[in-house]
Write a structure and sequence with these properties.
Elements: H1 6-12, E1 16-17, E2 21-23, E3 28-30, E4 35-37, E5 41-43, E6 48-50, E7 53-55, E8 59-61, E9 66-68, E10 74-76, E11 81-82, E12 87-89, E13 91-93, E14 113-115, E15 118-120, E16 125-126, E17 131-132, E18 137-138, E19 143-144, E20 149-150, E21 158-161, E22 166-170, H2 175-191
Parallel strand pairs: 1-4, 2-5, 3-6, 4-7, 5-8, 6-9, 7-10, 8-11, 9-12, 10-15, 11-16, 12-17, 15-18, 16-19, 17-20, 19-21
Antiparallel strand pairs: 13-14, 21-22
């Protein structure tokens, strides 16, 4: 997978850019001046990132994922991720046909448009083909099965799956210690 060099990343013009960031040269970045990226972030081939996005530390966004922060924003906390083909959006038209929709719609004809912040809390991961809709707050330690449709806020440390996603079981909190140890080892390797 070809990644941008550090110099190439600097030229893109991100609002914030951390260290040890890997972004595929095949990813598409729109409005980078609205995008903040922390340390140890990897964004794979064919991802699309657009509008207001804040990505914490140790975050992975796998190939073919679409993240659109709209005006409200999509926020990835530390130690989070999106598996292959995820869609996470903070902005959407209504498709009940109560008004017109799409990019060529004049404001007076757009009756319903949602622009609500999406938050993905620490230790949470969205499974392949997951769809997270505007306004959702994913609590700490949540994971989602493939093809999950996330329409509502979640409760901490749960595994969710389905369309719409429902809590199936509790998640183990052992990942907290594993991520602490992993972080220490990575930083130790860098300093030696």
């Amino acid at each position: 997978m070809p990644f941008y060099s550090e110099q190439e990343l600097q030229k893109i013009g991100f609002k914030k850019l951390g260290k040890n960031v890997l972004i595929s040269t095949l990813a598409q970045i729109y409005k980078p001046h609205l995008i903040e990226i922390g340390d140890y972030v990897r964004i794979d081939d064919f991802c699309i990132l657009s509008n207001s996005i804040k990505i914490g530390n140790f975050v992975h966004i796998a190939a073919r994922s679409l993240i659109d922060g709209g005006k409200a924003g999509v926020n990835f906390d530390d130690y989070t991720g999106a598996a292959y083909n995820c869609i996470i959006i903070a902005s959407s038209d209504s498709y009940r046909l109560e008004g017109f929709f799409g990019p060529f719609c004049l404001p007076e004809y757009r009756k319903k448009h949602f622009d609500k912040e999406v938050n993905i809390s620490k230790f949470s991961v969205i499974g392949s083909f997951g769809l997270v809709m505007p306004g959702v707050n994913i609590a700490e330690g949540c994971s989602f099965g493939a093809y999950s449709l996330v329409l509502k806020d979640t409760e901490p440390w749960g595994f969710y799956t389905g369309q719409p996603a429902k809590r199936i079981r509790d998640n183990d909190k052992g990942i907290i210690e594993m991520t602490r140890l992993n972080t220490i080892e990575i930083i130790d390797k860098e300093s030696s």
